[in-house]
């Protein structure tokens, strides 16, 4: 039997993917939070997991170093490579990509007056498209993390960041003023692998989609 490699990041994506893998009969033999291993064996000798940075998952799948990957929509929107299929919304790691400003900043008025805003973000591509659609002129500043700090120290007027509970914004005297797009994680597949390893990949796909469907039904009840 051919072997399958699944790329995912540790932390929330690994934690929330674990039940999906279990439904597909795949159980990791290592805990990535404790182990330093980057290639994890599973109970299935033909399936291994590789632990990569969240934003690197599409790259591993695109080049076929992994057959399957689990990546946030935010990451996929920024990744402009080809060679992968986005097959399934897994409905995990859900949050929203939003524009946020300081509590005392009047965003609406700034827009109405055509002010040129400085916006700090890790998501340059998505932010760029969003503001272009709104016909807003912005200067984007690329950051790699802790975007919430930027407005507080005068680096930017606004940020584009992921928000789930809003607690981090609140703790830093920021407010969300605009939703750009709802975010969840997706299952992606290398296009060539889907053809060549269809027999091995299909059962995983089916198990994942079954449990995702069930989850949706539970949510609707
Ligand atoms: P790193 O922490 O290594 O800089 P990262 O922030 O992209 O990378 P995670 O924090 O593990 O890595 O996030 C992985 C994915 O989980 C994100 O790409 C996004 O889709 C989703 N995510 C991020 N923040 C939240 C959140 N607060 N709530 C729910 N999902 C989130
Ligand atoms: Mg993070």
Structure description:
The strands form two sheets. A six-stranded mixed beta sheet has the order 2-3-1-4-11-5. The protein is built from nine helices and eleven strands. The protein folds into two domains: 121 residues, D-Maltodextrin-Binding Protein, domain 2 (3-Layer(aba) Sandwich); 88 residues, Periplasmic binding protein-like II (D-Maltodextrin-Binding Protein, domain 2, 3-Layer(aba) Sandwich), CATH 3.40.190. It has 221 residues and is an alpha/beta fold. Adenosine-5'-triphosphate binds next to helix 1 and helix 3.
Structural class: alpha/beta
Largest sheet, spatial ordering of strands: 2-3-1-4-11-5
Separation, N- and C-terminal Cα atoms: 40 Å
Q: What is the CATH homologous superfamily assignment of the largest domain?
A: Periplasmic binding protein-like II
Q: Provide the CATH architecture of the largest domain.
A: 3-Layer(aba) Sandwich
The number of domains is: 2
At the fold tier of CATH, the topology name of the largest domain is: D-Maltodextrin-Binding Protein, domain 2
Q: How many DSSP E strands?
A: 11
Q: What fraction strand?
A: 25-35%
Subunit organisation of the chains: single chain
What best-fitting shape do the alpha-carbon axes yield? Answer: elongated
Q: Please, what is the average pLDDT?
A: 95
The proportion of residues forming helix, as a percent range, comes to 25-40%
Contiguous uncertain segments of 5+ residues: none
List the bound ligands: adenosine-5'-triphosphate, magnesium ion
Question: SSE string, helix = H, strand = E?
Answer: EHEEHEHEEHEHEHEHEEHH
The CATH class of the largest domain: Alpha Beta
Number of helices: 9
Biggest pleated-sheet summary: 6 strands, mixed
Radius of gyration: 20 Å
């Amino acid at each position: 039997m051919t072997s399958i490699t699944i790329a995912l990041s540790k932390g929330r994506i690994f934690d929330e993917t674990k039940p999906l893998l279990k439904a597909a009969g795949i159980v990791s033999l290592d805990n990535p939070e404790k182990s330093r291993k980057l290639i994890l064996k599973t109970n299935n000798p033909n399936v291994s997991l590789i632990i990569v940075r969240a934003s690197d998952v599409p790259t591993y799948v695109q080049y076929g170093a992994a057959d399957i990957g689990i990546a946030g929509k935010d990451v996929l929107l920024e990744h402009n490579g080809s060679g992968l299929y986005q097959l399934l919304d897994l409905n995990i790691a859900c949050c929203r990509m939003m524009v946020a400003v300081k509590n005392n900043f009047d965003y609406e008025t700034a827009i109405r007056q055509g002010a040129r805003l400085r916006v700090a973000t890790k998501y340059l591509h998505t932010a760029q498209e969003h503001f272009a659609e709104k016909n807003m002129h912005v200067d984007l500043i690329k950051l790699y993390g802790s975007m919430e700090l930027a407005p507080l120290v005068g680096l930017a007027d606004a940020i584009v960041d992921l928000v789930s509970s809003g607690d981090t914004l609140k703790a830093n005297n920021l407010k969300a003023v605009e939703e750009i797009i709802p975010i969840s994680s997706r299952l992606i597949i290398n296009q060539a692998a889907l053809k060549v390893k269809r027999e091995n990949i299909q059962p995983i796909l089916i198990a994942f989609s079954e449990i995702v469907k069930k989850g949706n039904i539970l949510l609707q009840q």
